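can u do me a favor
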């Protein structure tokens, strides 16, 4: 997928464009992307970074980093992505001006968007305006009860299975592997400790079954209460893996929540609990 940050950076083509923030690239987003992909033109997406709500002062816990969002958009069949810096200047553009400055220059002949899509200054633009401007508008019905906000609510509650049902894929946590306390290795269960971007949503504290790098993983999101910890950490024990992951970017899939984190009466009891977590991880089923 070609990624551009200015319209003139994309090579000339007749395009159908899906527009939106697409945080999480959930099932509702994918319906819009499917409509674009099926339109018979080169499928492209126009998306925004940072999240528009964050620019207007709202705190937003993102479901995906920009890097991961672009990967998912590419997997959904988009051949081009125009990532616009969302700032007050862009937000102030009148809808027709936005269409002439962004959509026309990239060869957009058709636009795919969900019913109720609004854009431009004070969200004054709609799909009807784009139709009047001569664009072939592909209106996409909304998917009932599927939204980024609902996914966030399920993850905040630790319900990664229900989140997966809305996403159409397992929920994820992404980060870069950094050095931790190295306690896992001394217990016989070495872990990859992830540094997670501060604006990225991390699900509720607990122990999860999941996967990373093509291997099953027992994942801890918590404070290590057995050792009196207070700082939240994301750690993954990749089953049957040996190797150095420091500095690597890893995307963890969360398949199911196994239990609450806990302090134990002894280190032996902790090891027994981890062994049970590993066995349950081996038997876990990836949610679709």
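np, heres the sequence
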């Amino acid at each position: 997928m070609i990624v551009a940050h200015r319209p003139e950076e994309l090579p000339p083509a007749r395009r159908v464009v899906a527009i939106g923030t697409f945080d999480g690239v959930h099932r509702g987003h994918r319906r819009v992307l499917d409509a674009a992909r099926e339109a018979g033109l080169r499928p492209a997406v126009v998306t925004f970074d940072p999240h528009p709500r964050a620019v207007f002062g709202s705190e937003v816990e993102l479901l995906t980093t920009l890097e991961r969002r672009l990967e998912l958009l590419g997997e959904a069949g988009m051949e081009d992505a125009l990532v616009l810096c969302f700032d007050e200047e862009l937000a102030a553009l009148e809808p027709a001006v936005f269409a002439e400055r962004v959509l026309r220059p990239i060869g957009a002949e058709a636009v795919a968007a969900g019913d109720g899509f609004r854009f431009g200054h004070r969200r004054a633009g709609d799909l009807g305006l784009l139709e009047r401007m001569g664009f072939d508008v592909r209106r996409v019905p909304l998917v009932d009860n599927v939204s980024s906000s609902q996914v966030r609510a399920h993850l905040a509650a630790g319900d990664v299975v229900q989140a997966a049902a809305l996403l159409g894929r397992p929920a994820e946590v992404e980060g870069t592997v950094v050095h931790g306390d190295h306690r896992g290795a001394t217990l016989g269960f070495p872990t990859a400790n992830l540094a997670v971007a501060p604006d990225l949503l991390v699900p509720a504290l607990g122990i999860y079954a999941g996967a990373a790098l093509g291997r099953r993983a027992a994942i801890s999101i918590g404070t290590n209460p057995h050792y009196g910890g207070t700082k939240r950490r994301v750690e993954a024990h990749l089953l049957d893996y040996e190797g150095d992951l420091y500095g690597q970017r890893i995307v963890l899939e969360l398949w199911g929540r196994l239990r609450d984190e806990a302090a134990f009466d002894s280190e032996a009891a902790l090891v027994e609990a981890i062994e049970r977590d590993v066995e349950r991880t081996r038997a876990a089923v990836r949610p679709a």
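Residues 105 and 210 are 43 Å apart (CA to CA). hope that helps!!
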